[in-house]
Design goal:
13 strands, about 15% strand, 8-stranded mixed sheet, Aspartate Aminotransferase, domain 2, about 425 residues, alpha/beta
Length: about 425
């Protein structure tokens, strides 16, 4: 596998960087602000209270304590709507009108939300983003791909491709965690694999076609934690794929790919060519079924409905301006709070790279983020822990559109209360 230095000149010749390593390999060696180890642990304040002994006053606790970066909060209105429809929907055939109508509404709603051109298709399949990487290895990459790796999830597609015996070794361009690299035009590359938002580190990147790339090259974007909350331009992308358990406030187990005519042509050519493709990973089969408003095999109907309900909620209230606006307001609050805190700071230093949907907040050595998260969890405020492989003294907080602004403000008040209780114990 070839790894390029992030500083390689755009359009210039690529040189291998022997010091570039995968995220999971260098996470332990990365210089970390606020990561207690060795003698630093001895300087941490010893807390005598257990998490269950610290009670956050009800008046400052969030009404809804779900702040997970995925699976995310599911709106109670969507659950109620599903329960109302359930007797005539759940447990029925996915190839009959009742289910196909919901799939059709989902595909139409996404087309409207993303302002997709008329010749694009919204394709659905079972298995989530991880399975889609395997499907894309069979059905989107012709020979060689280039991958940007700047966190745990952005690195995984490249690893899947590297194991495919029918593809050339992928080019991987890496950057330090807390930042992102940029793609480099290469005439030998037929697919550029980008990540709109790195969920593990809270880094967002702009989406644009690399200069000096082949006319036939595709730009495929993993948008699992970005889709529905971060705007994008279809003219810069050919395949925008995601799972719905984050901004779309649904369950997992489903992948959705918005495909341009170039991507559709590539899918059909590879599906009808000599390459053997398992039926469950065949994007040609998924495309054919999706145009009929169905999936190849039976989907989780609740996931399909909840995703459709969230998409229609967005569109009924102003589309991407509404959904992205909610996430921007939530993340602005948490970042501003951290910047003005005496014990916390945003992990991502470059403000342009700070994610509007996943906020990563570092804490200094006066308090343990793990202890804060444990106390929050004991008080019904859940899933704020930092990403395990990043290994920082950090909280990771979702800012997806389903979360209420008042709950985010209550969360920061609760954190302040917990820190005071821990450091004064």
């Amino acid at each position: 596998m070839v790894r390029l230095a992030p500083g390689s000149a755009e359009g210039g010749s690529a040189t291998a960087d022997p010091n570039a390593v995968a995220f999971s390999e260098d996470a332990e060696k990365t210089s970390r602000r606020g990561s207690p180890s060795g003698s630093q642990l001895q300087s941490l304040h010893l807390v005598t209270k257990t998490p269950t002994e610290i009670q956050i006053p009800a008046e400052i606790r969030p009404q809804d304590g779900r702040f997970a970066s995925g699976p995310s909060k599911v709106r109670s209105e969507a659950v109620a709507a599903l329960a109302e429809l359930a007797p005539n929907f759940l447990g029925t055939s996915h190839r009959k009108p009742g289910v196909k109508e919901i799939v059709g509404r989902l595909r139409t709603g996404l087309t409207d939300l993303f302002a997709l051109p008329d010749d694009w298709e919204v394709v659905l399949g079972n298995g989530g983003t991880t399975l889609f990487w395997d499907a894309a290895s069979f059905g989107l990459i012709d020979v060689k791909s280039q991958h940007l790796s700047f966190g745990e999830f952005s690195s995984k597609f490249a690893k899947a491709v590297a194991r495919a015996p029918f593809l050339a070794d992928p080019t991987v361009i890496s950057s330090e965690t807390g930042s992102h690299p940029m793609p480099v035009g290469d005439p030998s590359v037929d697919l550029y694999a980008l990540t709109h938002n790195e969920t593990s580190t809270g880094v967002v990147m702009p989406l644009s076609r690399p200069t000096n790339s082949s006319h036939d090259a595709l730009v495929a974007v993993d948008a699992t934690s970005a889709a529905g909350a971060i705007p994008w331009d279809p003219s810069e992308v050919d395949c925008y794929y995601f799972a719905p358990q984050k901004a779309f406030a649904s369950d997992g187990g489903l992948w959705i790919a918005c495909c341009s005519p170039k991507a559709i042509d590539r899918i059909n050519r590879l599906a009808n060519g000599p390459r053997w493709i398992p039926a469950g990973l065949d994007l040609g089969i998924a495309l054919d079924n999706s145009t009929k408003n169905q999936t190849y095999n039976t989907p989780a109907l609740a996931t399909v409905f909840l995703t459709m309900h969230q998409v229609e909620w967005f569109n009924q209230n102003g589309g991407m301006k509404f959904s992205a606006g909610r996430s921007n307001a939530l993340s602005s609050h948490i970042y501003n709070w951290a910047e003005n805190s005496s014990f916390a700071t945003p992990y991502v230093q470059d403000k342009a790279m700070r994610s509007p949907v996943v906020a990563t907040i570092d804490f200094d050595q006066s308090v343990s983020a793990d202890q804060i998260a444990a106390v929050l969890r004991a008080n019904g405020i859940v899933d704020t822990e930092g990403y395990r492989k990043l290994g920082r003294n950090q909280l990771r907080i979702a800012c997806f559109p389903a979360i209420e602004q008042a709950d985010m403000e209550a969360l920061t008040s609760s954190i302040e209360f917990v820190v005071e209780a821990l450091t004064s114990a």
